[in-house]
Design brief:
With 159 residues, this protein is mostly helical. Helix content is 75%, strand content 3%.
């Protein structure tokens, strides 16, 4: 018990892990610590701060190690894309690396959903993905086209 207490006190990431693993309510895991890390990495509070894709992806990976529930993982992945889309909508055209990262995460969500046997889960997420796509459909670097392609692939996998 002392070791667990020491680990808990040693690092906030350990706290997040233990909370995700053991403090689950009827509503699921509290994803706010992971969302906070994603937002800080993708949409930092200073306009000139670098975007830290690796840190945001690590937050999702850390959650998966702690709990790994599909719906919650999809929520964090979607939040990653949403934070990125907020950045491009607020500040304008970003660089190729940015759009590649956002497109890759959006594609990963679509791939996870395309292999699901729960049509209700997929339908719910398809609607959310469609709405997010509509927000950025006319964005540069072919980003909107890429997201549209992932949506088409997901739709066709459901028929």
């Amino acid at each position: 018990m002392g070791l667990v207490q020491d680990l808990y006190r040693a690092d906030p990431k350990n706290q997040d892990f233990l909370h995700a693993r053991f403090l689950v309510s009827d509503g699921g895991t509290d994803l706010s610590p992971y969302k906070k890390r994603i937002k800080a990495a993708i949409n930092p509070s200073r306009w000139d701060a670098p975007i830290k894709y690796r840190d945001a992806r690590r937050a999702i990976s850390d959650y998966n190690k702690a709990r790994g529930q599909l719906g919650e993982t999809l929520e964090l992945m979607f939040y990653y894309v949403k934070c990125g889309n907020d950045v491009t909508l607020e500040f304008g055209d970003m660089d190729e690396t940015f759009y590649n990262s956002m497109g890759s995460m959006f594609g990963s969500i679509a791939k996870k959903l395309s292999v699901q046997v729960d049509p209700e889960l997929t339908a719910t997420w398809l609607d959310r993905l469609e709405k997010e796509y509509q927000r950025v459909a006319n964005t540069g670097w072919g980003y909107g086209d890429e997201l549209g392609g992932y949506l088409e692939d997901l739709r066709s996998s459901q028929t």
